TrEMBL record:
Keywords: Antiviral defense, RNA-binding. InterPro entries: Csm4. Belongs to the CRISPR-associated Csm4 family. This is CRISPR system Cms protein Csm4. It comes from Sphaerotilus microaerophilus.
Amino acid sequence: MPMRTFKLTLRPESAFGTPLAGDTLFGHLCWALRWRQGEAGLIKLLEGYTRGQPFAVLSDALPAGLLPRPNLPASRLQRAGDPKVDPKQRKADKQLAWLPAEQAARPMVDWVRVGLDKARSVQTEVRTQNTIHRLTGTTGTGVFAPRQVDTLVHAPGAALEVYAVLDTDRLPLPSFVQALADIGVNGFGRDASTGLGKFTLVGEAAAHSWPTPPGARHALTLAPCAPVPADLDADDCHYQPVTRFGRHGSLHVLTGRPFKRPLLLLRSAAVLAWRHPSNECPAFHGQGLGGVAQPISAAEPATVHQGYAPVLPLALPELKEAA
């Protein structure tokens, strides 16, 4: 059965210590399923994960109704014959980090001109944390010294959307929704034990499909991605790299070896160009990383990392047509 895409809406209930990135969210999903279905259940779900058969591919949590601005050079955002954009205007355009999802099928040069400021989605706040010394009953020096940490705060009433590509034969939608709700209750990311990273699910998960512009050969990634070079036209892919210095959560934090090997990925909002165009854009792209054959963790060699990313087709002109 082909994998199906669903859209789920989250409502933040606290500040976050870690951005809700798709690959990190997948790690939390694995732990949530581990607690719901046991280790044997998780191992069964992960069969084939590093061979192109993921049971779930998750996007970043995006502001409701918005998509990230594709990572494209200015030359790819102009029509042939358009005048050069003023450098100040070009810088201002780059601040428009979010684009309306409902207009994703528009030609790229038109879509990027209706963006929204990044600052509208989330704000960074600095908070002071203290650790009380049990013997003195107060703070002190070293690990007991008050410290300031950054947190991510969403506007009151803000909603986030996650796009999940699921193999519902292996992971039924109700089981996935329950696992995601568990993550929201227990908290996501850094300092979850202090109350950060809480969220609730809003409404029902809805089946979702992206409009496919005629002749679309490009796609936008919605999560960090480990691309498959054989499938892509490298000359027309645009991206920024990101290095993940992963760390285990839950029980593996207590092993004394919580750190994973660094991974080099494409940052979200990369633009991919298929080497062999097709009338149907795949629901996701990438590869599963880790596993026993290529371990990324000394503490748990079977650890995997989501190198897959949901993608949506883009109406981007071919290079010869661009300015």
